[in-house]
Amino acid sequence: MRGRTRTAIGIGLILLIGAGLVTLFQAPIATALFGRMVEQRVGRDVTAGLPDGLHVILCGTGSPFPDSSRAGPCTAIVAGKRLFVVDAGEGGARNLMLMGVPVGRVERLFLTHFHSDHIDGLGPMMLLRWAGTPSTVPLPVAGPTGVEAVIAGFNIAHAADNGYRTAHHGPAIMPPSGAGAIAFPFAPPPAGTGLVILDKDGLRVTAFRVDHAPVSPAVGYRFDYKGRSVVISGDTIFSPSLVTAARGTDLLVHEALQPVLVKRLTAALEARDIRNTAQVTRDILTYHTTPEQAADAARLAGAKALVFNHIVPPLPLRFAYPAFLGGARQHYGGPITIGEDGMMFTLPAGGASMTEQRLL
Questions:
Q1: pLDDT for res 42
Q2: Ramachandran angles phi, psi of 160, nearest 5°
Q3: CB of 215 within 8 A of CB of 287?
Q4: What is the DSSP letter of 57?
Q5: Which of 45, 67, 87, 117 is catalytic?
Q6: Between these two residues, 10 and 85, which has the higher pLDDT value?
Q7: What is the rounded distance in angstroms from the CA atom of residue 103 to the CA atom of residue 131?
Q8: Measured between alpha carbons, how far is 297 from 337 in angstroms, rounded to an integer?
């Protein structure tokens, strides 16, 4: 018994001394660990070693609902060595940086529509691109008619900040000509048709109209590169024009709202007499797509794989994923993935395979 007591006392003293040493040397230990992290992360470019083809990076899979695990809508597309982004939800640019995707190389941003959750991360996207190059031209932003007013507003809001940064860091680091963004508007094509808005170096980007009424205009985008393709739905109800645009695509990234779960949320809001928000949750049922309807679109289009984004409502844990999917797997026989921030899907040029990896 005495031996055990002495052993316990000895272990306790060792632990106490160890804790004291850690406290004493905490600052230098933390500094060394920070230095190691900096060496591993600063300047990291996860796109540098990617094979030629299309790569789809989910930088934001959330919605206007607060969700600690999901940034606002944001999808990055790597085509060969070129980098593009579709929508700029809050937190999207931050996620790209955390994943090691060089925002300074973003060639163009495409907006699907002007709901706040799709544009409220535009400020950080402009700043990080400007500081990351340094860019001498503003961020090009393509979008349907009306994008000019959106970009003008952001440029006005950030004008003072732009001036501060050039004054502080100097024009060689933050060239005034590279601040902000510049709009490239296009008239949305009639439903059921596509409009090619970029066709260069083997990459073709086609815009198509979707139905998000009363939000108008609203579009989705198709990217085609070296025999591979991906379609981004934007926000929409079930849309025949999307089915047409997505014919034979390798990957359909489609928004989804699960009404059964949203109605539970509405009931909880009503029970707590939060009537205004409860009405909002009732209204959103009318202009989004259910997982089952999105699965129908994937089946009808002949899409090879389906990924859900713009997840509504927020899902507290993966255990809830089957409840969110509902009967989607009975509507579509291909692979279905509930998108999460940090996922990257790789579609090698000229092939038929698709792989997934996590960057966050």
A1: 78
A2: -65, -45
A3: yes
A4: E
A5: 117
A6: 85
A7: 9
A8: 15
